[in-house]
Every structure is written in structure tokens, then in C-alpha cells.
Design brief:
The chain is an alpha/beta fold. It has a single domain, classed as 3-Layer(aba) Sandwich (Rossmann fold). The protein contains seven helices and nine strands. Strands 3-2-1-4-5-6-9 form a seven-stranded parallel β-sheet, sandwiched between helices. The chain starts with 21 loop residues before the first strand and ends in a 9-residue tail after the last helix. 40% of the residues are buried.
Length: 248
């Protein structure tokens, strides 16, 4: 179980609310988890500036928000100035297995992550990196599932990149709290049976807003420690503040 289990989001893992407001980058804010992370961060009093980096305009206006459009994540060199002076990043960029050919899945899942981390490390070497991985990610590369191999390889690269704190999030089924068009039949089925599935397998589900909140809170908490953590679904659930969590 994560050491964050009994602590509220504002004091996650024994950390303190910072006396200095943080600057947070969110990559992939047009997606399900990234969108929740953006909305939560904009309301978070411990965050003074949120920079969204993505390929599509979000259509959101907020005094704390800076939106940067970047078309090609295969080369993030142009983001060097944008990423300078940042305190943390919530990296939520990704795609679904089967939605794109294997080569594109590898490029989005692994290559884009490594390239973004390279530029961030050069511009903000002390930044905290939180990464949206997935259940079953395999850093050994032996998995038969391409998604697991690519996510595992991305995890391995991030943990070796030299950031002082890296948090790898491995959620199982992420329940979308906002209506959306499901990407495949299996997701439509899981959404339909979610109430029963959650009762039968409570450790294998996480709400998208709970996941996003955990990613943001751990990124901006105050700590003097250097650490790297791999957080499985049960750990992420334990990080969610019971006073704030809602039932569906």
C-alpha cells in the first residue's frame, strides 16, 4: 500500500502545503484524465499557473491558464522556453490500444514521452514528473501486449531521466465521470456494468477525477525528498481523500 494512504490531498504523503505556489504543466488536457486534471488544477489554490501543452485548442479561458499548441511531439525542442521555470508536469498524453496502428501506438506512448521528458529535463531539471501509465505496464519488455511493453519502456526511461521525483500511475479501469463517446465496445460494456463491477472488484476501478486529483496533488506537494514511486490502482485509491471522494 502507498505511504500516502491516510493523508489528505493537501498534505499528501506527509508533505506540506507549499508556501510557494506551484507552476504546473499538463500534457494531454483534451483527454479524459488530463481534462479532469486541468479543471482541478485551475481550482487549486496551491497552483499559481497552469500551462496546457497539446495539439488541440481546449476552448477554455481562465486567468491561471496558459495554453500552448504543439503539433509534433516527436520534436519538443520548440517547447524549451515554455517548459522553463516549471515545478511539475502531469503527463496524460496517450491513446487506446486498437485505435491506431502499432507503430503509431509506440510513437505516442513511448517516443513522445521520452522526447518531452528530454526537453523538460533541460529546461526545468528540478521538476516533478507524474506519468499516466496503465495496469500491467511491463518495464522488462517481456509482455505480449504492445501497450504494456511501450508503457513499461516509457516508465523505465522516466525513472532513469534524472528528475528528483517521478510518480508512475498505473490505474486499472478508469471510469469516465463526464459523458463521452467510448472508444470501443469493451469500454461501452464496462461503463454500462460499472456499478456492479465496482461492487465486485473495488480495487480494479478508479474514477477519472480521483485519478487526476491524485496526480496533481502528489506533483505539487511540498517535500525535500528525492523519490520515485510506482503507484498501482490500490495505491491511487488510497491517495484519494475520503472526505472528497464521491460515489457513482
Amino acid at each position: 500500500m502507498s505511504k500516502y494512504a491516510t493523508v489528505s490531498p493537501t498534505e499528501a504523503a506527509g508533505g506540506r502545503t507549499s508556501s510557494f505556489k506551484k507552476r504546473l504543466v499538463i500534457v494531454g488536457a483534451s483527454g479524459m484524465v488530463g481534462g479532469c486534471a486541468l479543471r482541478y488544477a485551475l481550482q487549486n489554490p496551491n497552483i499559481e499557473r497552469v500551462t496546457s501543452v497539446g495539439r488541440r485548442n481546449l476552448g477554455i479561458s481562465h486567468s491561471k491558464l496558459t495554453e500552448v499548441l504543439h503539433a509534433d511531439f516527436a520534436d519538443c525542442s520548440a517547447l524549451a522556453e515554455t517548459l522553463s521555470g516549471q515545478d511539475a508536469v502531469a503527463f496524460c498524453l496517450g491513446t487506446y490500444t486498437g485505435a491506431v496502428p502499432d507503430a503509431e501506438l509506440r510513437r505516442i506512448t513511448l517516443d513522445y514521452t521520452i522526447e518531452f521528458a528530454r526537453v523538460l529535463r533541460g529546461s526545468s531539471p528540478d521538476a516533478v514528473f507524474t506519468f499516466l501509465s496503465g495496469n500491467g505496464a511491463d518495464p522488462t519488455g517481456r509482455s505480449r501486449m504492445a501497450f504494456a511493453r511501450y508503457k513499461g519502456a516509457a516508465e523505465k526511461a522516466l525513472l532513469a531521466a534524472g528528475f528528483p521525483r517521478v510518480y508512475i500511475f498505473r490505474p486499472a479501469y478508469i471510469y469516465p465521470v463526464e459523458p463521452r463517446k467510448e472508444p470501443a465496445f469493451s469500454y461501452r460494456l464496462l461503463r454500462a456494468v460499472y456499478p456492479a463491477f465496482r461492487l465486485m472488484f473495488p480495487g480494479l476501478v478508479i474514477r477519472s477525477d480521483d485519478l487526476a486529483r491524485a496526480m496533481v496533488d502528489v506533483a505539487v506537494r511540498e517535500t525535500g525528498e528525492r523519490e520515485s514511486r510506482v503507484l498501482e490502482n490500490r495505491d491511487i485509491l488510497a491517495m484519494a481523500d475520503p472526505a472528497q471522494r464521491r460515489t457513482s
